[in-house]
Amino acid sequence: MTNNEDKLKKIISHSKEYGFVFQSSEIYDGLSAVYDYAQNGVELKKNIRNHWWKAMVQMNENIVGIDSAIFMHPTIWKASGHVDAFNDPMIDNKDSKKRYRADVLVEDYIAKIEGKINKEVAKAAKRFGEAFNKEEFLNTNPRVIANREKMKAISKRLYGSLENNNLDDVKALIEELGIACPVSGSKNWTEVKQFNLMFATQMGSTSEGANEIYLRPETAQGIFVNYLNVQKTGRMKIPFGIAQTGKAFRNEIVARQFIFRMREFEQMELQFFVRPGEEKKWYEYWKAERMKWHLSLGMNKEDYRFHDHEKLAHYANAATDIEFDFPMGFKELEGIHSRTDFDLKAHEEHTGKKLRYFDPELNESYVPYVVETSIGLDRMFLAIMSTAYNEEKLEDGSERVVLNLPPALAPYKAAILPLMKKDGLPEKAREIMAELQENFMCQYEEKDAIGKRYRRQDAIGTPFCITIDHDSLEDNMVTIRDRDTMKQERVAVADLRQIIDAKIRNKA
Ligand code: ATP
User: Fold this and answer.
1) What residues flank ligand 1, with Cβ below 6 Å?
2) Percentage of residues in the chain having pLDDT higher than 90
3) What is the model's pTM?
4) Cα radius of gyration (the chain)
Protein backbone atom coordinates (compact mmCIF):
# COMPACT_ATOMS: atom_id res chain seq x y z
CA MET A 1 0.00 0.00 0.00
CA THR A 2 1.41 3.37 -0.96
CA ASN A 3 1.37 6.28 1.45
CA ASN A 4 -1.30 7.99 -0.56
CA GLU A 5 -3.72 5.07 -0.52
CA ASP A 6 -3.01 4.95 3.15
CA LYS A 7 -3.93 8.62 3.49
CA LEU A 8 -7.24 8.15 1.68
CA LYS A 9 -8.08 5.24 3.98
CA LYS A 10 -7.24 7.35 7.01
CA ILE A 11 -9.47 10.19 5.79
CA ILE A 12 -12.33 7.76 5.16
CA SER A 13 -12.10 6.23 8.60
CA HIS A 14 -11.60 9.60 10.32
CA SER A 15 -14.65 10.94 8.45
CA LYS A 16 -16.69 8.08 9.80
CA GLU A 17 -15.33 8.01 13.33
CA TYR A 18 -15.81 11.75 13.86
CA GLY A 19 -19.20 12.15 12.20
CA PHE A 20 -18.30 13.75 8.87
CA VAL A 21 -19.30 11.22 6.20
CA PHE A 22 -21.15 7.90 6.44
CA GLN A 23 -21.79 5.32 3.78
CA SER A 24 -25.43 5.65 2.69
CA SER A 25 -27.78 2.92 3.98
CA GLU A 26 -24.94 1.45 6.01
CA ILE A 27 -27.11 -0.84 8.12
CA TYR A 28 -28.26 -2.42 4.86
CA ASP A 29 -24.61 -2.93 3.85
CA GLY A 30 -24.47 0.37 2.00
CA LEU A 31 -25.35 1.67 -1.44
CA SER A 32 -22.43 1.92 -3.81
CA ALA A 33 -21.04 5.43 -4.40
CA VAL A 34 -23.72 7.14 -2.33
CA TYR A 35 -22.80 8.88 0.91
CA ASP A 36 -24.49 10.74 3.74
CA TYR A 37 -23.03 13.78 5.45
CA ALA A 38 -23.13 13.46 9.21
CA GLN A 39 -23.37 16.04 11.99
CA ASN A 40 -19.93 17.61 11.44
CA GLY A 41 -19.76 16.95 7.72
CA VAL A 42 -22.98 18.80 7.06
CA GLU A 43 -21.58 21.92 8.77
CA LEU A 44 -18.32 21.80 6.83
CA LYS A 45 -20.17 21.21 3.57
CA LYS A 46 -22.60 24.06 4.25
CA ASN A 47 -19.72 26.40 5.11
CA ILE A 48 -17.93 25.55 1.84
CA ARG A 49 -21.16 26.17 -0.09
CA ASN A 50 -21.75 29.49 1.70
CA HIS A 51 -18.16 30.55 1.14
CA TRP A 52 -18.54 29.88 -2.60
CA TRP A 53 -21.91 31.67 -2.68
CA LYS A 54 -20.46 34.69 -0.95
CA ALA A 55 -17.52 34.92 -3.36
CA MET A 56 -19.72 34.49 -6.42
CA VAL A 57 -23.05 36.15 -5.60
CA GLN A 58 -22.61 38.44 -2.60
CA MET A 59 -19.33 39.95 -3.83
CA ASN A 60 -20.41 40.48 -7.45
CA GLU A 61 -23.13 42.97 -8.26
CA ASN A 62 -23.70 41.40 -11.66
CA ILE A 63 -24.20 37.82 -10.42
CA VAL A 64 -27.44 36.48 -8.95
CA GLY A 65 -28.45 33.01 -7.82
CA ILE A 66 -31.30 30.62 -8.54
CA ASP A 67 -32.47 27.25 -7.26
CA SER A 68 -34.05 25.31 -10.11
CA ALA A 69 -35.84 21.96 -9.81
CA ILE A 70 -34.05 18.64 -10.24
CA PHE A 71 -36.79 17.39 -12.57
CA MET A 72 -36.90 19.21 -15.88
CA HIS A 73 -38.70 18.79 -19.17
CA PRO A 74 -37.15 15.72 -20.83
CA THR A 75 -36.56 17.51 -24.14
CA ILE A 76 -34.04 19.73 -22.35
CA TRP A 77 -31.68 16.76 -22.18
CA LYS A 78 -32.21 16.05 -25.85
CA ALA A 79 -31.32 19.68 -26.68
CA SER A 80 -28.27 19.69 -24.42
CA GLY A 81 -26.90 16.56 -26.07
CA HIS A 82 -27.11 14.42 -22.93
CA VAL A 83 -29.61 11.89 -24.32
CA ASP A 84 -27.42 11.12 -27.30
CA ALA A 85 -23.92 11.76 -26.06
CA PHE A 86 -23.63 11.70 -22.26
CA ASN A 87 -21.94 8.34 -22.42
CA ASP A 88 -18.89 6.68 -21.00
CA PRO A 89 -17.19 3.78 -22.76
CA MET A 90 -17.34 0.68 -20.58
CA ILE A 91 -15.60 -2.67 -20.72
CA ASP A 92 -15.99 -5.81 -18.60
CA ASN A 93 -13.37 -8.31 -17.58
CA LYS A 94 -14.80 -11.75 -18.29
CA ASP A 95 -12.97 -13.45 -15.43
CA SER A 96 -13.54 -11.05 -12.55
CA LYS A 97 -16.88 -9.81 -13.98
CA LYS A 98 -15.73 -6.32 -12.98
CA ARG A 99 -16.77 -3.35 -15.07
CA TYR A 100 -14.37 -0.52 -15.97
CA ARG A 101 -14.37 2.71 -17.90
CA ALA A 102 -12.30 1.87 -20.94
CA ASP A 103 -10.83 5.39 -21.11
CA VAL A 104 -9.87 5.30 -17.43
CA LEU A 105 -8.00 1.99 -17.88
CA VAL A 106 -5.89 3.65 -20.57
CA GLU A 107 -5.52 6.89 -18.57
CA ASP A 108 -4.27 4.89 -15.58
CA TYR A 109 -1.72 3.26 -17.89
CA ILE A 110 -0.58 6.72 -19.03
CA ALA A 111 -0.36 7.85 -15.40
CA LYS A 112 1.98 4.91 -14.70
CA ILE A 113 4.33 6.13 -17.44
CA GLU A 114 4.17 9.61 -15.90
CA GLY A 115 5.06 7.99 -12.57
CA LYS A 116 8.19 6.51 -14.19
CA ILE A 117 9.19 9.92 -15.52
CA ASN A 118 8.71 11.47 -12.08
CA LYS A 119 10.94 8.78 -10.58
CA GLU A 120 13.69 9.53 -13.12
CA VAL A 121 13.40 13.23 -12.27
CA ALA A 122 13.62 12.56 -8.54
CA LYS A 123 16.66 10.30 -9.03
CA ALA A 124 18.42 12.87 -11.19
CA ALA A 125 17.60 15.70 -8.80
CA LYS A 126 19.27 13.73 -6.04
CA ARG A 127 22.31 12.94 -8.17
CA PHE A 128 22.88 16.48 -9.47
CA GLY A 129 21.90 18.32 -6.32
CA GLU A 130 21.65 22.07 -6.65
CA ALA A 131 22.88 22.10 -10.24
CA PHE A 132 19.78 20.19 -11.36
CA ASN A 133 17.71 21.84 -14.05
CA LYS A 134 14.40 20.03 -14.33
CA GLU A 135 13.27 21.58 -17.62
CA GLU A 136 16.55 20.74 -19.30
CA PHE A 137 16.49 17.19 -17.95
CA LEU A 138 12.94 16.65 -19.22
CA ASN A 139 13.92 17.89 -22.67
CA THR A 140 17.20 15.99 -23.04
CA ASN A 141 17.08 12.68 -21.16
CA PRO A 142 16.45 10.00 -23.82
CA ARG A 143 14.38 7.72 -21.57
CA VAL A 144 12.18 10.62 -20.50
CA ILE A 145 11.76 11.82 -24.08
CA ALA A 146 10.77 8.33 -25.22
CA ASN A 147 8.25 7.96 -22.39
CA ARG A 148 6.75 11.37 -23.03
CA GLU A 149 6.30 10.55 -26.69
CA LYS A 150 4.70 7.26 -25.77
CA MET A 151 2.23 9.06 -23.49
CA LYS A 152 1.37 11.51 -26.23
CA ALA A 153 0.84 8.80 -28.84
CA ILE A 154 -1.45 6.76 -26.55
CA SER A 155 -3.51 9.84 -25.62
CA LYS A 156 -3.86 10.87 -29.23
CA ARG A 157 -5.08 7.45 -30.25
CA LEU A 158 -7.46 7.08 -27.29
CA TYR A 159 -9.14 10.47 -27.68
CA GLY A 160 -9.18 10.20 -31.48
CA SER A 161 -10.95 6.84 -31.32
CA LEU A 162 -13.41 8.07 -28.70
CA GLU A 163 -14.16 11.14 -30.77
CA ASN A 164 -14.91 8.98 -33.82
CA ASN A 165 -16.83 6.49 -31.69
CA ASN A 166 -14.38 3.82 -32.85
CA LEU A 167 -14.86 1.58 -29.82
CA ASP A 168 -13.20 -1.40 -31.49
CA ASP A 169 -9.99 0.57 -31.61
CA VAL A 170 -10.27 1.48 -27.91
CA LYS A 171 -10.44 -2.25 -27.18
CA ALA A 172 -7.54 -2.91 -29.55
CA LEU A 173 -5.51 -0.25 -27.71
CA ILE A 174 -6.22 -1.87 -24.32
CA GLU A 175 -5.07 -5.21 -25.74
CA GLU A 176 -1.97 -3.79 -27.42
CA LEU A 177 -0.89 -2.09 -24.20
CA GLY A 178 -1.38 -5.39 -22.37
CA ILE A 179 -3.63 -3.82 -19.74
CA ALA A 180 -4.80 -6.44 -17.23
CA CYS A 181 -7.77 -6.37 -14.88
CA PRO A 182 -6.48 -5.18 -11.48
CA VAL A 183 -8.72 -7.75 -9.76
CA SER A 184 -8.28 -10.96 -11.79
CA GLY A 185 -5.01 -10.05 -13.49
CA SER A 186 -6.45 -11.38 -16.75
CA LYS A 187 -6.61 -9.71 -20.16
CA ASN A 188 -9.84 -11.40 -21.10
CA TRP A 189 -11.98 -8.37 -22.05
CA THR A 190 -15.45 -7.92 -23.55
CA GLU A 191 -16.18 -5.44 -26.34
CA VAL A 192 -16.24 -1.75 -25.41
CA LYS A 193 -19.78 -0.34 -25.27
CA GLN A 194 -21.25 3.12 -24.67
CA PHE A 195 -23.21 3.57 -21.46
CA ASN A 196 -25.51 6.56 -20.83
CA LEU A 197 -24.93 8.07 -17.40
CA MET A 198 -28.36 9.62 -16.84
CA PHE A 199 -30.78 8.14 -14.34
CA ALA A 200 -34.27 7.86 -15.83
CA THR A 201 -37.55 7.59 -13.99
CA GLN A 202 -41.26 7.90 -14.73
CA MET A 203 -43.33 10.98 -14.05
CA GLY A 204 -47.10 10.54 -13.73
CA SER A 205 -49.04 7.33 -13.49
CA THR A 206 -47.67 4.62 -15.77
CA SER A 207 -51.06 3.43 -16.96
CA GLU A 208 -51.84 6.86 -18.38
CA GLY A 209 -48.75 7.07 -20.51
CA ALA A 210 -46.23 8.40 -18.07
CA ASN A 211 -43.31 10.42 -19.37
CA GLU A 212 -39.77 9.25 -18.98
CA ILE A 213 -37.84 11.98 -17.24
CA TYR A 214 -34.29 12.23 -15.94
CA LEU A 215 -32.62 13.19 -12.72
CA ARG A 216 -30.50 16.14 -13.84
CA PRO A 217 -26.87 15.18 -14.54
CA GLU A 218 -25.74 18.82 -14.13
CA THR A 219 -27.25 21.97 -12.69
CA ALA A 220 -26.22 24.11 -15.68
CA GLN A 221 -29.31 23.46 -17.83
CA GLY A 222 -31.57 24.81 -15.08
CA ILE A 223 -29.71 28.10 -15.47
CA PHE A 224 -29.87 28.16 -19.29
CA VAL A 225 -33.61 27.60 -19.50
CA ASN A 226 -34.20 30.36 -16.91
CA TYR A 227 -31.65 32.85 -18.20
CA LEU A 228 -34.07 35.15 -19.99
CA ASN A 229 -36.55 35.16 -17.08
CA VAL A 230 -33.75 36.14 -14.70
CA GLN A 231 -32.31 38.71 -17.11
CA LYS A 232 -35.68 40.40 -17.55
CA THR A 233 -36.96 40.28 -13.97
CA GLY A 234 -33.55 41.19 -12.54
CA ARG A 235 -32.92 43.80 -15.27
CA MET A 236 -29.47 42.27 -15.75
CA LYS A 237 -27.08 43.75 -18.28
CA ILE A 238 -24.51 41.72 -20.11
CA PRO A 239 -22.00 40.68 -18.86
CA PHE A 240 -23.86 39.02 -16.00
CA GLY A 241 -23.88 35.68 -14.23
CA ILE A 242 -26.33 33.22 -12.71
CA ALA A 243 -25.09 30.94 -9.93
CA GLN A 244 -26.62 27.77 -8.60
CA THR A 245 -25.73 25.02 -6.14
CA GLY A 246 -27.57 21.74 -6.06
CA LYS A 247 -27.70 18.00 -6.50
CA ALA A 248 -26.75 16.26 -9.74
CA PHE A 249 -26.97 12.55 -10.54
CA ARG A 250 -24.81 10.34 -12.71
CA ASN A 251 -24.89 6.59 -12.98
CA GLU A 252 -21.09 6.35 -12.90
CA ILE A 253 -19.74 3.07 -14.24
CA VAL A 254 -16.95 2.78 -11.76
CA ALA A 255 -17.68 4.44 -8.51
CA ARG A 256 -14.78 4.35 -6.12
CA GLN A 257 -12.46 6.75 -4.33
CA PHE A 258 -14.92 7.77 -1.66
CA ILE A 259 -16.74 11.06 -2.28
CA PHE A 260 -14.57 11.85 -5.33
CA ARG A 261 -16.89 9.98 -7.67
CA MET A 262 -20.45 9.62 -6.45
CA ARG A 263 -23.71 8.74 -8.13
CA GLU A 264 -25.50 11.56 -6.29
CA PHE A 265 -23.39 14.65 -5.71
CA GLU A 266 -23.60 18.40 -5.47
CA GLN A 267 -22.35 20.99 -7.92
CA MET A 268 -21.70 24.70 -7.52
CA GLU A 269 -21.97 26.33 -10.92
CA LEU A 270 -21.75 29.77 -12.45
CA GLN A 271 -22.92 30.50 -15.97
CA PHE A 272 -21.60 33.89 -17.06
CA PHE A 273 -23.31 35.47 -20.08
CA VAL A 274 -21.15 37.63 -22.33
CA ARG A 275 -21.09 39.31 -25.73
CA PRO A 276 -20.13 37.01 -28.59
CA GLY A 277 -16.44 37.50 -29.29
CA GLU A 278 -15.63 38.47 -25.69
CA GLU A 279 -15.81 34.93 -24.32
CA LYS A 280 -12.06 34.24 -24.35
CA LYS A 281 -11.37 37.35 -22.27
CA TRP A 282 -13.96 36.26 -19.67
CA TYR A 283 -12.72 32.69 -19.77
CA GLU A 284 -9.24 33.92 -18.78
CA TYR A 285 -10.80 36.17 -16.13
CA TRP A 286 -12.71 33.32 -14.48
CA LYS A 287 -9.73 30.98 -14.67
CA ALA A 288 -7.75 33.45 -12.61
CA GLU A 289 -10.62 34.29 -10.24
CA ARG A 290 -11.40 30.68 -9.45
CA MET A 291 -7.78 29.84 -8.70
CA LYS A 292 -7.65 32.89 -6.40
CA TRP A 293 -10.72 31.57 -4.56
CA HIS A 294 -9.05 28.23 -3.87
CA LEU A 295 -5.85 29.82 -2.63
CA SER A 296 -7.75 32.35 -0.47
CA LEU A 297 -8.82 29.40 1.64
CA GLY A 298 -5.20 28.82 2.61
CA MET A 299 -4.90 25.71 0.42
CA ASN A 300 -1.38 24.78 -0.77
CA LYS A 301 -0.43 26.30 -4.11
CA GLU A 302 1.61 23.27 -5.10
CA ASP A 303 -1.48 21.04 -4.82
CA TYR A 304 -3.11 22.88 -7.72
CA ARG A 305 -2.56 22.94 -11.45
CA PHE A 306 -4.51 23.77 -14.60
CA HIS A 307 -5.05 21.09 -17.17
CA ASP A 308 -6.02 22.76 -20.42
CA HIS A 309 -8.06 20.52 -22.70
CA GLU A 310 -6.67 19.74 -26.12
CA LYS A 311 -9.73 17.77 -27.09
CA LEU A 312 -12.77 20.00 -26.62
CA ALA A 313 -16.35 18.91 -25.99
CA HIS A 314 -18.76 19.66 -28.84
CA TYR A 315 -20.09 22.75 -27.02
CA ALA A 316 -16.79 24.38 -26.01
CA ASN A 317 -14.17 26.58 -27.66
CA ALA A 318 -11.84 26.56 -24.65
CA ALA A 319 -11.75 24.40 -21.52
CA THR A 320 -9.54 23.74 -18.56
CA ASP A 321 -9.70 21.70 -15.37
CA ILE A 322 -8.47 22.96 -12.06
CA GLU A 323 -6.78 19.81 -10.83
CA PHE A 324 -6.02 19.09 -7.21
CA ASP A 325 -3.44 16.69 -5.81
CA PHE A 326 -5.90 14.33 -4.06
CA PRO A 327 -4.51 11.35 -2.09
CA MET A 328 -4.93 9.36 -5.33
CA GLY A 329 -3.04 11.94 -7.41
CA PHE A 330 -3.86 15.03 -9.49
CA LYS A 331 -7.52 14.88 -10.56
CA GLU A 332 -10.23 17.27 -11.71
CA LEU A 333 -11.73 19.40 -8.97
CA GLU A 334 -13.35 22.11 -11.06
CA GLY A 335 -14.06 22.65 -14.75
CA ILE A 336 -13.99 26.00 -16.54
CA HIS A 337 -15.51 26.00 -20.00
CA SER A 338 -16.16 28.56 -22.67
CA ARG A 339 -19.45 26.99 -23.80
CA THR A 340 -20.13 29.37 -26.72
CA ASP A 341 -23.81 29.85 -27.56
CA PHE A 342 -24.31 26.10 -27.95
CA ASP A 343 -26.83 25.53 -25.16
CA LEU A 344 -28.98 28.62 -25.68
CA LYS A 345 -29.09 28.05 -29.45
CA ALA A 346 -30.07 24.42 -28.90
CA HIS A 347 -32.91 25.49 -26.59
CA GLU A 348 -34.05 28.03 -29.20
CA GLU A 349 -34.17 25.27 -31.79
CA HIS A 350 -36.04 22.80 -29.60
CA THR A 351 -38.58 25.30 -28.26
CA GLY A 352 -38.99 27.58 -31.26
CA LYS A 353 -38.64 30.49 -28.81
CA LYS A 354 -36.14 33.31 -29.10
CA LEU A 355 -33.58 33.44 -26.33
CA ARG A 356 -31.93 36.66 -27.48
CA TYR A 357 -30.66 39.50 -25.41
CA PHE A 358 -31.13 43.06 -26.62
CA ASP A 359 -27.88 44.91 -26.04
CA PRO A 360 -28.77 48.60 -25.64
CA GLU A 361 -25.17 49.73 -26.15
CA LEU A 362 -24.79 47.91 -29.46
CA ASN A 363 -28.45 48.38 -30.33
CA GLU A 364 -28.71 44.75 -31.47
CA SER A 365 -30.02 41.39 -30.31
CA TYR A 366 -27.91 38.28 -30.00
CA VAL A 367 -27.68 34.93 -28.26
CA PRO A 368 -25.08 35.48 -25.53
CA TYR A 369 -21.96 33.36 -25.21
CA VAL A 370 -21.42 31.58 -21.92
CA VAL A 371 -18.43 30.96 -19.70
CA GLU A 372 -19.02 28.30 -17.06
CA THR A 373 -17.26 27.47 -13.82
CA SER A 374 -18.38 24.18 -12.29
CA ILE A 375 -17.02 22.72 -9.09
CA GLY A 376 -18.06 19.58 -7.24
CA LEU A 377 -18.87 20.46 -3.64
CA ASP A 378 -18.05 16.93 -2.51
CA ARG A 379 -14.70 16.99 -4.29
CA MET A 380 -13.91 20.33 -2.62
CA PHE A 381 -14.85 18.74 0.71
CA LEU A 382 -12.37 15.93 0.02
CA ALA A 383 -9.67 18.40 -1.09
CA ILE A 384 -10.11 20.37 2.13
CA MET A 385 -10.14 17.24 4.29
CA SER A 386 -6.96 15.92 2.68
CA THR A 387 -5.20 19.25 3.22
CA ALA A 388 -6.46 19.61 6.78
CA TYR A 389 -5.86 16.07 8.04
CA ASN A 390 -2.59 15.93 9.95
CA GLU A 391 -0.99 13.49 12.34
CA GLU A 392 1.41 15.30 14.64
CA LYS A 393 4.07 14.10 17.02
CA LEU A 394 4.10 16.39 20.01
CA GLU A 395 7.05 17.47 22.12
CA ASP A 396 6.02 15.22 25.01
CA GLY A 397 6.18 12.21 22.66
CA SER A 398 2.42 11.81 22.36
CA GLU A 399 0.55 12.04 19.06
CA ARG A 400 -2.50 13.92 17.97
CA VAL A 401 -4.72 13.91 14.89
CA VAL A 402 -5.77 17.42 14.02
CA LEU A 403 -7.90 18.88 11.25
CA ASN A 404 -6.28 22.21 10.40
CA LEU A 405 -9.42 23.40 8.65
CA PRO A 406 -9.64 27.00 7.50
CA PRO A 407 -11.33 28.54 10.60
CA ALA A 408 -14.18 29.99 8.55
CA LEU A 409 -15.08 26.49 7.35
CA ALA A 410 -14.71 24.57 10.61
CA PRO A 411 -17.99 22.94 11.78
CA TYR A 412 -17.62 24.49 15.24
CA LYS A 413 -15.72 27.68 15.92
CA ALA A 414 -15.33 27.17 19.67
CA ALA A 415 -15.75 24.51 22.31
CA ILE A 416 -16.85 25.65 25.76
CA LEU A 417 -15.27 23.45 28.42
CA PRO A 418 -15.83 23.81 32.18
CA LEU A 419 -12.75 22.37 33.87
CA MET A 420 -14.94 20.45 36.32
CA LYS A 421 -18.54 19.39 36.54
CA LYS A 422 -19.08 21.19 39.86
CA ASP A 423 -18.55 24.38 41.93
CA GLY A 424 -20.64 26.51 39.58
CA LEU A 425 -18.26 26.04 36.62
CA PRO A 426 -20.89 24.46 34.32
CA GLU A 427 -23.25 27.35 35.05
CA LYS A 428 -20.61 29.93 34.17
CA ALA A 429 -19.72 27.93 31.03
CA ARG A 430 -23.38 27.78 29.99
CA GLU A 431 -23.57 31.56 30.33
CA ILE A 432 -20.62 32.01 27.97
CA MET A 433 -22.05 29.40 25.60
CA ALA A 434 -25.40 31.22 25.44
CA GLU A 435 -23.64 34.45 24.52
CA LEU A 436 -21.34 33.01 21.88
CA GLN A 437 -23.77 30.67 20.15
CA GLU A 438 -25.77 33.65 18.92
CA ASN A 439 -22.85 34.32 16.60
CA PHE A 440 -20.94 31.07 16.15
CA MET A 441 -21.50 27.33 16.11
CA CYS A 442 -20.25 26.30 19.55
CA GLN A 443 -20.04 22.98 21.31
CA TYR A 444 -20.44 22.50 25.04
CA GLU A 445 -18.53 19.58 26.60
CA GLU A 446 -18.07 18.70 30.23
CA LYS A 447 -17.29 14.99 30.08
CA ASP A 448 -13.74 13.53 30.42
CA ALA A 449 -10.41 15.07 31.34
CA ILE A 450 -9.58 18.36 29.67
CA GLY A 451 -6.74 16.86 27.55
CA LYS A 452 -9.10 14.30 26.10
CA ARG A 453 -11.64 16.98 25.29
CA TYR A 454 -8.95 19.05 23.52
CA ARG A 455 -8.06 16.02 21.35
CA ARG A 456 -11.68 15.47 20.38
CA GLN A 457 -11.99 19.10 19.31
CA ASP A 458 -8.68 18.91 17.39
CA ALA A 459 -10.05 15.90 15.53
CA ILE A 460 -13.08 17.83 14.28
CA GLY A 461 -11.08 20.98 13.56
CA THR A 462 -12.49 23.38 16.18
CA PRO A 463 -10.20 26.45 16.09
CA PHE A 464 -10.69 27.41 19.76
CA CYS A 465 -11.17 25.64 23.06
CA ILE A 466 -12.36 27.87 25.89
CA THR A 467 -11.80 26.55 29.39
CA ILE A 468 -13.61 27.86 32.45
CA ASP A 469 -11.89 27.30 35.80
CA HIS A 470 -12.38 28.43 39.40
CA ASP A 471 -10.58 31.74 38.81
CA SER A 472 -13.03 32.50 36.00
CA LEU A 473 -15.77 32.87 38.59
CA GLU A 474 -13.73 35.61 40.27
CA ASP A 475 -12.02 37.48 37.45
CA ASN A 476 -14.31 36.76 34.48
CA MET A 477 -11.29 35.52 32.50
CA VAL A 478 -10.97 32.19 30.65
CA THR A 479 -8.22 30.17 29.00
CA ILE A 480 -8.39 30.10 25.24
CA ARG A 481 -6.41 27.44 23.38
CA ASP A 482 -5.49 27.71 19.72
CA ARG A 483 -5.99 24.48 17.74
CA ASP A 484 -2.95 24.89 15.49
CA THR A 485 -0.32 26.20 17.89
CA MET A 486 -1.87 24.66 21.05
CA LYS A 487 -0.86 27.91 22.78
CA GLN A 488 -3.03 28.90 25.71
CA GLU A 489 -3.84 32.41 26.72
CA ARG A 490 -5.83 34.01 29.50
CA VAL A 491 -8.40 36.44 28.10
CA ALA A 492 -11.44 38.38 29.29
CA VAL A 493 -14.81 36.79 28.57
CA ALA A 494 -15.87 40.12 27.07
CA ASP A 495 -13.16 39.79 24.36
CA LEU A 496 -14.03 36.27 23.21
CA ARG A 497 -16.38 37.26 20.45
CA GLN A 498 -13.91 39.62 18.87
CA ILE A 499 -11.02 37.11 19.10
CA ILE A 500 -13.03 34.37 17.38
CA ASP A 501 -14.35 36.78 14.79
CA ALA A 502 -10.85 38.00 13.90
CA LYS A 503 -9.62 34.44 13.42
CA ILE A 504 -12.48 33.55 11.09
CA ARG A 505 -12.02 36.66 8.99
CA ASN A 506 -8.29 36.22 8.76
CA LYS A 507 -8.47 33.21 6.47
CA ALA A 508 -11.29 32.59 4.05
P1 ATP B 1 -14.89 13.46 -14.45
O2 ATP B 1 -14.07 13.60 -15.71
O3 ATP B 1 -14.06 13.34 -13.19
O4 ATP B 1 -15.98 12.44 -14.55
P5 ATP B 1 -16.46 15.58 -15.49
O6 ATP B 1 -15.48 16.24 -16.41
O7 ATP B 1 -17.48 14.67 -16.04
O8 ATP B 1 -15.66 14.86 -14.29
P9 ATP B 1 -18.05 17.93 -15.20
O10 ATP B 1 -19.15 17.41 -16.04
O11 ATP B 1 -17.15 18.99 -15.76
O12 ATP B 1 -17.18 16.70 -14.65
O13 ATP B 1 -18.67 18.41 -13.81
C14 ATP B 1 -18.19 19.52 -13.09
C15 ATP B 1 -17.68 19.14 -11.71
O16 ATP B 1 -18.62 18.31 -11.03
C17 ATP B 1 -16.40 18.34 -11.74
O18 ATP B 1 -15.28 19.18 -11.83
C19 ATP B 1 -16.46 17.61 -10.41
O20 ATP B 1 -15.92 18.42 -9.37
C21 ATP B 1 -17.93 17.42 -10.16
N22 ATP B 1 -18.32 16.03 -10.46
C23 ATP B 1 -18.57 15.48 -11.66
N24 ATP B 1 -18.90 14.19 -11.54
C25 ATP B 1 -18.86 13.90 -10.22
C26 ATP B 1 -19.13 12.72 -9.44
N27 ATP B 1 -19.51 11.59 -10.01
N28 ATP B 1 -18.98 12.80 -8.09
C29 ATP B 1 -18.61 13.95 -7.50
N30 ATP B 1 -18.36 15.08 -8.17
C31 ATP B 1 -18.48 15.08 -9.51
Assistant:
1) 218, 250, 252, 261-262, 265, 267, 332-335, 374-376, 378-379
2) 87
3) 0.90
4) 26
